[in-house]
Design a protein that fits this description.
Order of helices and strands: HEEEEEEEEHEEEEHEEEEEEEHEEE
Structural class: mainly beta
Strand content: 35-45%
Number of domains: 2
Helix content: under 10%
Number of strands: 22
Length: about 425
């Protein structure tokens, strides 16, 4: 069964009418007695599972839901995500961790946090002006200028990335901020902020698909025959973006997933694998000001887990993602060809009594490509952005626009000023 548009629309409708107790609704594998099965289901996750007698009629989830010509089972779980029985992977998966129960041999700082040239996917980047740190997922091409760019999350590049007209939005902009790899010295500067996807809050009816941002890359940091690679992964080809059809078919295939983050390093090629869990509408708190948050809804996310041949059949293990891995790419070996399927942006600790991350979340690459207007970099001839004389346009008031075209030039929101 494919992840069809009918299923996407049904999940969107269900999310629109869900209660505040609901944390996500998705399409994935049903859980039975704490373990995953191969049965497809619509999965409802709640902060708290309540007795039927305590529910309003609108809060009761039926045992089955019809979508088009298909009748799908439902699965109701407590927690932000599926409550699978998680356990530890082999200790080699946690070489980065100083938690002795996961890694008794002592931690090693991942090399992705070192200065690496030429720049490649999976490396630590820092907004040198503001100080935030995360992962550059991959190098891509800005279709508007045919220029090379680094791709990460908006929440890595800036603290506040709501649309300008979001009520209560704090004043902040990242126009012209320097980006460094890996850190803050002038010699490590590799580019400047270029644009991000502004989000809308759930309370105002906003539906988001992408937590994404671009920054320019200087020619001195790029090698066109290497920069499409991923630091720490063995394959050396230039991954294309997966198609919509390939992403919608992930649920029907046991593809191996890969990812490289600044905190947990390269994952997926060792004894511990990454694998598909579900497609989900999820709710994430983003900073509205420097001290307050607002809930945002993200639709059609790819959820994934880590698993190893030592873990109980059907169970996942800890840390498919961790803090600092935000912005990393999610890749899949699709019938022998490695392709980018998503941009990782969040994780969940559901199922872990110790608060370990158990589930990773990624924005689909087709949505990322559409909203950031990028294409895969595979070594083709490209331009480099001229950052010496940037053009700036100020829009009066609290504009709802994420971009505006003036005299043939397109300007993107990069924040607000007083």
């Amino acid at each position: 069964m494919l992840y069809t548009q009918e299923i996407k629309d049904k999940i969107s409708d269900l999310a629109k009418n869900s209660s505040d107790n609901c944390t996500s609704i998705g399409f994935g594998f049903k859980e039975v007695n704490g373990e995953l099965t191969d049965e497809r289901a619509l999965i409802f996750r709640f902060k708290e599972k309540k007795p039927i007698a305590d529910l309003l009629p609108s809060e009761i989830v039926p045992k089955t839901i019809t979508v088009g010509n298909e009748t799908l089972q439902t699965d109701v779980c407590q927690g932000e995500d599926r409550f699978v029985a998680y356990e530890a992977c082999p200790s080699s998966f946690y070489s980065w961790s100083n938690n002795s129960s996961l890694n008794p041999t002592g931690s090693t700082t991942p090399s992705q946090q070192s200065e690496i040239r030429p720049i490649k996917g999976g490396l630590q980047v820092r907004n040198q002006t503001k100080g935030w740190v995360g992962t550059m997922g991959f190098v891509a091409v800005d279709n508007e200028t045919n220029s090379i760019v680094g791709v990460t999350n908006a929440h890595v590049m800036t603290e506040i990335f709501f649309r300008a007209n979001e009520s209560g939005r704090g004043v902040e902009n990242v126009y012209g901020d320097d980006i460094g790899q890996p850190s803050s010295s002038v010699s490590q500067q590799v580019g400047v902020t270029k644009r991000y996807v502004p989000v809308q809050g759930n309370a105002s009816g906003g539906i988001n698909y992408v937590d994404g941002a671009l920054f320019t890359l200087d020619s001195s940091s790029i090698n066109t025959s290497q920069s499409y690679q991923y630091y720490g992964l063995s394959f050396t080809g230039a991954p294309e973006f997966a198609t919509t059809e390939e992403i919608d078919d992930l649920i029907n295939n046991n593809y191996e997933f890969y990812s490289v983050g600044r905190t947990t390093g390269a994952k997926g090629e060792g004894v511990t694998k990454l694998k598909f869990l579900s497609y989900d509408t999820v709710y994430v708190n983003n900073n509205l000001t420097s001290s307050t948050e607002r809930l945002c809804r993200y639709d059609e996310c790819i959820s994934y887990i880590a698993s190893a041949n030592t873990t109980t059949n059907g169970n996942g293990c800890y840390y498919p993602i961790n803090s600092g891995d935000s912005g990393s790419a999610l890749l899949a070996n699709i019938d022998g060809t490695v392709k980018i399927i998503g941009l990782c942006f969040a994780g969940s600790t559901s199922g872990s009594a110790d608060g370990y991350f158990t589930i990773g979340r990624a924005c689909r690459i087709d949505r990322v490509a559409e909203e950031l207007n990028i294409s895969a970099f595979t070594g083709q001839s490209i331009n480099y952005s001229d950052t010496t004389i940037p053009q700036v346009h100020y829009e009066a008031g609290f504009s709802s626009l994420s971009a505006v075209t003036i005299n043939g030039n397109k300007f993107y929101q990069l924040g607000t000023v007083n």
